[in-house]
Amino acid sequence: MTLALFSLVLVAAVMHATWNALIKTRSDRFASITLATLGASVVVLPILPFVDFPSIQVWIWIVASVIIHAGYRLFLVKTYDVGDFAQSYPLARGIAPLITTVGAIIFIGEVPEGLTVLGIVVLSFGALLMSLRGSSDLGKFNRRAVGFALLTSMLIAGYTLTDGYGVRLANTASSYAAWLFFCDGLCSIAIGFLYRGRGLLNVLASEWKTNLLTGGLLAGSYWIIMWAMTKAPIASIAALRETSILFAMLISVLVLSERVTPWRVLATVFIVGGVVILRLG
Questions:
Q1: Comparing 22-36, 163-177, 225-239, which segment has the lowest mean pLDDT?
Q2: Do 82 and 145 contact (CB within 8 A), yes or no?
Q3: What is the residue-averaged pLDDT of the chain?
Q4: The three-state (H, E, C) secondary structure of 38-79, written as one string
Q5: Torsion angle, alpha carbons of 128, 129, 130, 134, to 10
Q6: Of the listed ranges 32-36, 149-153, 194-198, the one predicted with least confidence
Q7: pLDDT recorded at residue 5
Q8: What is the C-alpha separation between 261 and 264, in angstroms, rounded?
Q9: pTM score above 0.85
Q10: Which distant-in-sequence residues (6+ apart) come within 8 Å of 4 by Cβ?
């Protein structure tokens, strides 16, 4: 993995942690993530005339990804509704690289090298440690939050593998990403109106600037990741993306006023160690 690619994935990780924090801090998270996804569609709308229209073979993967993303958003919101950001985010993100690695081996035949596997395992262990021992209130370990976070992890791995394979079939990563975001936004807003009706418009009217910003961060961060998966192994990119956990911790401390604990520091050491190993690999 080149230094430029490595650096861009880290930028995507910062963007990813930021838009998740924005969703976490909203009072109506279902409406916020629905409208953020619509915001991503608005961001890419001017680009659609300038990218290739996907082939039928590519559309199969885009449709599959849209379906998986719908489930991902549902469980992500439920995770944030019942759990702390500092605990639920690392758990949801931390296990996904391991699942993705196994999936890439089984379904795509992409076997990472030994040093890369070590980096993925070390980074994932740090993420788990951050989640299971990093909460500010260990006496109230939330089983529901953990359950939703684990389901979210499986869906993250699902759409990562789907998009990692689909984007490689497309003529360009930009073509795949733009049409995915556009279709995903339409699907998300349709589901939103089905569950909330006109009430969704009230949230849009009051928070449209935040939703547009969140949508831009969402689209930009994942666009980089999908492009990166055409340049490097899917498992490596998926693991490196989860450095967003570090940035999420900083946000939780500096913005959400959650405290730093020795366990968080130790977890950070493992995450950074995993990142270093991935870079060397």
A1: 22-36
A2: yes
A3: 86
A4: HHHHHHHHHHHHHCCCCCHHHHHHHHHHHHHHHHHHHHHHHH
A5: 130
A6: 194-198
A7: 94
A8: 5
A9: yes
A10: none
